[in-house]
Write a structure and sequence with these properties.
By secondary structure, the chain is mainly β. It is 0% helix and 39% strand.
């Protein structure tokens, strides 16, 4: 208390933190707190430690605590596509798989897949040396190509499933080696690299 006698302005530290495990939609969150401060300060002590000039009072402060939750995605799970092996291009099976994306609760976004690193005239290709094998990816069980712009984007509002906590959405797709192409002369492993994009 001796340190308080030098003035009548006091600092009271207050710390706030969020609680983990909450599931919130994007937006601004506010709360008004009512803090009651009571004081009983003795400015002058007399004989026998009797307070000669007590200062007693109370006040209420109402600070606003605010935070903003933004739309974002924490996890994108996109497994490799493996068509296996076959002697002829026409023998490769279709591959049905799922991409899972975990984002802010209730957020709306579009998911796109680019054309890879070997595309020719908007056709995806796996490549080995100079050899190419064309393939494509389709949304769900439809013939809608899953691409990176326009009508080829997949809206989160039309995801295949959504988890109970509204955080994780799944997107089932079918990858197909395109028919009508010749089998390349070169045998071996053909590959391509794709990028999954999420845009709010």
């Amino acid at each position: 208390m001796l340190n308080l006698l030098g003035g009548n302005v006091f600092t009271i530290p207050i710390y706030f933190k969020t609680v983990t495990g909450q599931n919130l939609s994007a937006g601004t969150y506010n709360v008004t707190l009512n803090l009651t401060i009571n004081w009983n300060i003795c400015w002058l002590l007399g004989i026998g430690s009797i307070c000669l000039n007590p200062q007693v009072g109370s006040t209420t402060l109402s600070p606003v605590v605010s935070l903003i939750v933004t739309n974002d995605c924490s996890t994108i799970s996109a497994p490799n596509i493996n068509f296996g092996s076959a002697p002829l291009v026409s023998s490769f099976p279709n591959v049905s798989q799922t991409i899972s994306i975990t984002c802010t609760k209730g957020s709306l976004y579009n998911v796109g897949i680019n054309n890879g690193t070997n595309a020719v005239s908007n056709v995806r290709n796996m490549k080995k040396g100079s050899g190419l094998i064309s393939y494509d990816i389709y949304q769900g069980t439809t013939n809608t190509r899953w691409g990176s712009s326009g009508s080829e984007l997949w809206s989160s509002a039309n995801s295949t499933t959504i988890s109970g906590d509204q955080l994780t959405r799944t997107y089932n797709y079918v990858a197909k080696v395109l028919t009508g192409q010749a089998t390349p002369n070169q045998s071996g492993n053909y590959s391509d690299t794709l990028t999954v994009n999420v845009a709010f």
